[in-house]
Amino acid sequence: MISKDAVILEVVEKHPSTEDVFRNYDDIAGKCTMCHNLFDTLEEFTNIYDIDLDDLITKLNRAKQK
């Protein structure tokens, strides 16, 4: 299970299918999240861009099962 303390880079390394989830947030962030936020935890990332943390974690956990 992916948690709020997981670092984006580690999530994508372990579960490459989650990359598309992060790319969907590029428009919200106004930049490439995979380029600028790789070393942030999920909690830090969602706080920076005012994103719903629980929603992101749900999407990531679904994507990793694919």
Automatic annotation (TrEMBL):
SUPFAM superfamilies linked to this entry: SP0561-like
InterPro entries linked: ScdA-like_N_sf (IPR038062)
UniProt name for this protein: DUF1858 domain-containing protein
